[in-house]
Design a protein that fits this description.
This protein has nine helices and five strands, in the order ββααβααβαβαααα. By secondary structure, the chain is an alpha/beta fold. Helix 2 (about 45-60) crosses helix 7 (about 145-170) and helix 4 packs across helix 5. It has a five-stranded mixed sheet with strand order 3-2-1-4-5, with helices on both faces. Strand 4, helix 5 and strand 5 form a beta-alpha-beta unit.
Length: about 220
Amino acid sequence: MIIAGLDEAGRGPVIGPFVIGCVVIKESELHVLDEIVVDDSKKISPKKRAILVEKIKNISLAYKSLIISPQEINDLHYSKHITLNQIEEQKFAELLNSMKPTPDVIYLDAADTVEDRFGITIKALLTFTPDKVISKHRGDAIFKIVGASSILAKTVRDQEIEKYKIQYGDFGSGYPSDPKTKRFLKEYYGKNQKFPPFVRTWWKTAENIVTAYKEGRTQKKITDF
């Protein structure tokens, strides 16, 4: 039996791409992941993730990541008015449809508040018919195959973020709650009256910065968002 796991990285940040990872493995090899995959890949360093992802690749039948750029996220929102959940559903299905061999059983980290609905929606978008699609909240902590795909997705996103930092400097974690990220966005917008191309401009943090400048505030008067 062939098993696939999918998870994402970069759902919440105002900066950077949204990355989906998929790992396909023989059921008989699942036990090997117990020695490789941790319950929460966020708790390990990018350097450690990069080491683990190579081990995951070595035992996989197939693996692939899908990078959804901030520009595409913005375009889908502004032109088609679709939510991040809908983007995730579409891209999970797109990635699964591209995988060879096709899996018999699929494990997902559910983005929908109703975890089963997330799996049902994605299954309806597939061009093949798996035996099962199992969708759970915190799937990466429950299923090692999902944890493996989480490590893959986060490693790819780490690499993309480093490319931005080489060009634009250190902007912190990219999360809206990070003071360094907010300071970078405020200063950049103050100088350029636009954001760099790797910013999700419909995130509230970005919208509030734009609103503040449109209201004629100086950069020093902008409060934390």
